[in-house]
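Handout, page 2. Input:
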Amino acid sequence: MKMTRKQQDDFIAQCRAAGLSVTHQRLAIFEAVMANGNRHPSAEVIYQTVRERYPTISFNTIYKNLETFEELGIVVKVNPLYNEARYDVDVRPHHHLICRQCKTIVDVHDKKLDALPAPEEAGGGFQVENWTVQFTGLCAECQPVAVG
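Output:
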């Protein structure tokens, strides 16, 4: 998915509002997340994409900027099965289906899940600010074929 001018302008405005300078590298990192947005790219995928334009950029630069983007609410970090962070440009509240085999992530927008009550454990003074539901299993392509 190609980044629109409005998305670029919004990104620039969010960075400036937070006092963050908008560098060519930061813009390239955000563009790489947008280009791979539906696939929830990992930092490694973003790094490989940005390196095509900026061969001297370091993985650490990519990772630190992604962490900054997360702090600013520009991206959301999705941790499928706790083995690597993946990044999502859809910052609206939503949930995920995650294939445990191929690690595909599918967004789930469901108002019933959004309206789940806080767990009873939160009654002891824990203030829930947000939550996501992650369903793990096997996608259609990874499910074993039934032999009939």
